[in-house]
């Protein structure tokens, strides 16, 4: 019977993806993308990849959501300085003729067909041994954690995770390079909007607690540094939107330290291990669990601060442009 | 019992499909945003039903993640609106 659910989900995902690309208005595209993210998270759950589902839920519906809304506002400022209608009626993408009639359309269809064939071929013959699952399971006791996903991400393939953190930091650097490093003005006025303040008061501890939960239980079950980081980052974004910009309170050297803390500790640990005769990121099995927890905590803080900085810088940038 | 859970999940999925009409037509951004809130709630319901069906409490973590982050979108939109109306750009 679950075939019915899965096929419905698959149809929904493909339909949403197509609509996302073909929708004539930007607002439609953005909100269809949210629905797409939700359907994708459900699909990951159905596939048994709960870790990925949490990440998808956190990033697609949380972080990307506010970024997209912010971008949407800017587009409406750029394309229509005069009209104040709340709908984005006047930035519809111009369409000349149906895409599937033109040459790029034909190429696209051919490419999609080829891709589908390759996918079908890849799905058709599943490796007998189940890929690397057996190897991971065998080495799990030495990794210091019980969740195979965390073991792979932070022990066996720690290199990848380390570089991923670098990629996120690079994203922030790109935003800073385009917009310039902001010295944030300190608002001394009392924040208005009592409802918003109450919401923030209510949600901040919940977000923090659930983030910490995901971080700590990432070694036994689904969860981990990235998911926790989005939840912690959401606190910063909420506070910023509520008129309490976090980055103005902490001094600049401290925020810089927080930004590079995760990747820096990871790197130093790797070099210390190299100096001790082991290879890069080869933790001694008896300390592996503790080391992974420290790395994950520092990484989560760093990523959270990075995400908040990205949002704050973009938001600040937009404010100045619109004035 | 199997059939019951399947029917519930399929019904909830169809709810999402129907909600897409509002995303497509919705005259204002707020209409569309409320639909995504509906999607979030429906998705959570699906996850909860699945968690009960497959008896896997890990799914609840996904549901809570959806739940606590849904507020971010609403607050983001409220701020966008405010700025669009020119109150405090």
UniProtKB/TrEMBL annotation, chain A:
Pull one GO CC term from this UniProt entry: plasma membrane
Signal peptide range equals: none
Q: Which residues cross the membrane?
A: 6-23, 30-47, 53-72, 99-120, 162-184, 196-218, 224-241, 253-275, 287-314
Tell me yes or no: is rRNA-binding among this UniProt entry's keywords.
no
* Pfam families (alphabetical): MbhD (PF13244), MnhB (PF04039)
Q: Where in the cell is it found?
A: Cell membrane
Record-annotated MrpA C-terminal/MbhD domain positions:
11-74
InterPro entries, alphabetized: CPA3_antiporter_subunitB, MnhB, MrpA_C/MbhD
Q: How does it sit in the membrane?
A: Multi-pass membrane protein
Q: Which family does it belong to?
A: Belongs to the CPA3 antiporters (TC 2.A.63) subunit B family.
Stated name of the protein = Sodium:proton antiporter
Source organism (scientific name)? Marinilabilia rubra
UniProtKB/TrEMBL annotation, chain B:
InterPro entries to which the protein is assigned, alphabetical: MrpF/PhaF-like (IPR007208)
Query: What does UniProt give as GO cellular component?
Result: plasma membrane
The entry's family comment says: Belongs to the CPA3 antiporters (TC 2.A.63) subunit F family.
Please give one Gene Ontology molecular function term for this protein.
sodium:proton antiporter activity
Nucleotidyltransferase keyword on record: no
Q: Where in the cell is it found?
A: Cell membrane
- Origin superkingdom: Bacteria
Q: Where, by residue number, does the polypeptide cross the bilayer? A: 6-24, 36-54, 60-81
Q: Which Pfam families match?
A: MrpF_PhaF
Keywords from UniProt, A to Z, are: Cell membrane, Membrane, Transmembrane, Transmembrane helix, Transport
Q: What is this protein called?
A: pH regulation protein F
Q: Report the source organism.
A: Marinilabilia rubra
Per the record's keyword annotation, is Membrane included, yes or no? Answer: yes
Location, primary (coarse class)? membrane
């Amino acid at each position: 019977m679950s075939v019915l659910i899965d096929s419905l989900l698959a149809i929904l995902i493909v339909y949403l993806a197509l609509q996302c690309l073909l929708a004539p208005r930007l607002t439609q595209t953005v909100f269809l993308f949210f629905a797409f993210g939700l359907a994708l998270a459900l699909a990951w759950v159905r596939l048994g990849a709960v870790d990925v589902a949490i990440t998808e839920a956190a990033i697609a519906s949380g972080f990307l959501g506010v970024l997209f809304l912010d971008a949407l506002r800017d587009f409406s400022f750029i394309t229509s300085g005069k009209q104040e209608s709340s709908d984005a009626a006047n930035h519809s993408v111009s369409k000349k003729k149906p895409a599937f009639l033109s040459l790029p359309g034909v190429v696209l269809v051919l490419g999609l067909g080829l891709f589908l064939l390759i996918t079908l071929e890849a799905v058709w013959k599943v490796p007998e041994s189940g890929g690397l699952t057996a190897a991971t399971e065998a080495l799990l006791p030495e990794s210091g954690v019980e969740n195979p996903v965390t073991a792979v991400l932070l022990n066996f393939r720690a290199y990848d995770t380390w570089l991923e953190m670098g990629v996120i930091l690079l994203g922030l650097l790109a935003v800073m390079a385009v917009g310039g490093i902001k010295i944030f003005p300190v608002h001394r006025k009392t924040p208005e909007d009592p409802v918003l303040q109450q919401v923030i008061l209510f949600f901040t501890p919940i977000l923090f607690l659930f983030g910490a939960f995901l971080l700590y239980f990432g070694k036994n079950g689904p969860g981990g540094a990235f998911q926790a980081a989005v939840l912690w980052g959401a606190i910063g974004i909420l506070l910023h939107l509520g008129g309490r910009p976090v980055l103005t309170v902490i001094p600049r050297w401290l925020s810089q330290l927080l930004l590079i803390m995760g990747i820096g500790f990871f790197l130093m640990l790797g070099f210390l291990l190299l100096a001790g005769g082991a290879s890069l990121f080869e933790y001694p099995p008896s300390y592996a669990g503790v080391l992974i927890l420290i790395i994950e905590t520092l990484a989560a803080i760093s990523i959270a601060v990075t995400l908040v900085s990205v949002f704050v810088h973009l938001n600040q940038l937009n404010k100045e442009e619109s004035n | 019992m199997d059939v019951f859970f399947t029917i519930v999940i399929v019904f909830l999925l169809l709810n999402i499909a129907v909600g897409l009409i509002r995303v497509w037509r919705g005259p204002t951004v707020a209409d569309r945003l409320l639909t995504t809130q509906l999607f979030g709630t429906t998705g959570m319901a699906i996850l909860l039903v699945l968690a009960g069906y497959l008896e896997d409490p890990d799914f609840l973590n996904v549901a809570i993640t959806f739940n606590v982050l849904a507020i971010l979108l609403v607050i983001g939109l409220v701020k966008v609106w405010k700025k669009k109306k020119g109150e405090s750009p």
